[in-house]
Design a protein that fits this description.
The protein is mainly alpha-helical and about 200 residues long. Helix content is about 45%, strand content about 5%. It has two domains: about 120 residues, no CATH class; about 70 residues, no CATH class. It is built from eight helices and four strands. Helix 3 crosses helix 6 and helix 5 packs antiparallel against helix 6. It starts with a helix and ends in an 11-residue tail after the last helix. The protein binds zinc ion (ZN).
């Protein structure tokens, strides 16, 4: 990033904090810095929100629960259509990215007022896997085995006795990565009812 720009931003934040009453200084720094939000994005978002308001009424999403999966599905459809080369939705003529932002904005709003129907599936390992892949650790997934008592050599101990080996995935980057100890696929192990990635071979 441009260092001069970063410095300018920091200076602006400090000056703003110094300009206020000392007792408000801390709060001021914590306030949202709306001046760094791209106005073009807000304008695009307004375009999509207006389309929704015309079709279903302004703030319709406040009147009924917002089902997370419905809005995530919509966001992903718009993102795929845009990335695959279509600029605007054929029905509304609004930019797909703007529609995508609108669906996410509605989820954020529903979260803030407590009307989100959170129908996400039980928590998976995607975020942890991505974090580990980022570190380019070849045995990344084996680190997911969060049992108390994982000993060296991948052996898993419970109450002082060895109950098995933790799964290890040397080729995490490939589709259908398999455990080098038991040969089962990452997908199969993740889907297990008892333990999933925390199970033993
Ligand atoms: Zn295994």
């Amino acid at each position: 990033m441009d260092k001069a720009l970063v410095d300018k931003l920091r200076t602006a934040e400090i000056e703003r904090a110094e300009a206020v009453n000392p007792k408000d200084k801390h709060a001021s720094v914590k306030l949202p810095m709306l001046s760094v939000v791209p106005p073009s994005a807000i304008i695009a978002l307004a375009d999509a929100m207006r389309d929704g308001a015309r079709k279903y009424g302004p703030y319709n999403w406040r009147k009924t629960p917002v089902i997370a999966s419905v809005y995530v599905d919509a966001a992903m459809r718009h993102l795929l259509a845009w990335f695959d080369g279509e600029e605007r939705a054929t029905d509304s003529k609004v930019n797909h990215l703007a529609h995508g932002m609108a669906t996410l904005a509605i989820i954020v709003d529903a979260l803030s007022v407590g009307t989100l129907e959170d129908d996400r599936p039980p928590k998976g390992a995607a975020a942890a896997l991505l974090e580990m892949l980022k570190k380019e650790n070849p045995n990344a997934a084996s680190e997911l085995v969060q049992r108390s008592g994982v000993s060296d050599g991948g052996r898993v101990e419970q109450a002082g006795r060895t109950v098995g080996r933790s799964h290890e995935f040397p080729d995490l980057g490939v589709i259908n990565a398999t455990c080098k100890n038991c040969g089962r696929s990452l997908a199969d192990i993740s889907a297990e009812r008892d333990g999933g990635l925390n199970s033993v071979c």
